[in-house]
Give the backbone structure.
Amino acid sequence: MTTIDDTINQWLRDAHAMEEQAEQMLESQSSRIENYPELAARIKRHLEETQSQLERLERCLERRGAATSAMKDLTAKASAMMQGLSSMMAGDEVMKGALASYAFEQFEIASYRILITAAETAGDIETARLCEEICREEEAMAADLADMIPELTRSYLTRENADLDEAKR
Ligand SMILES: [Fe+2]
């Protein structure tokens, strides 16, 4: 039997691994979307948030006495779903990247909602608060992506389809 604190520590490490994956994905995406400056700027901002999330999660794990020198090893494993999304994001097509980014944000939101409830259940209010704070950043990113997707799609279609103007007639 594990304790609720062990479970929360494992989920926090999983969240840390998820954010490391997010950092890599956002970095590789931001280098390939110079034709879409609004999206590029938002991705850059979320990359900075993600790096700060990693630090905040590390401090949280330390406070809970759960950080180990093997932190880097623990973060190596990402779920198959995250790897699938990350390979989509690494592709050279901006729409697949937008699709994967939006799905990844939803994955992050669900992860933090689980952690919020778990931390509240265990009475660790500080961890619950941190996860709420991070969750709001993910929700804001998801909402901004959702807002940008229509314009991004039109811009992609115009850029990639020389026949679009004729099709509209
Ligand atoms: Fe994140």
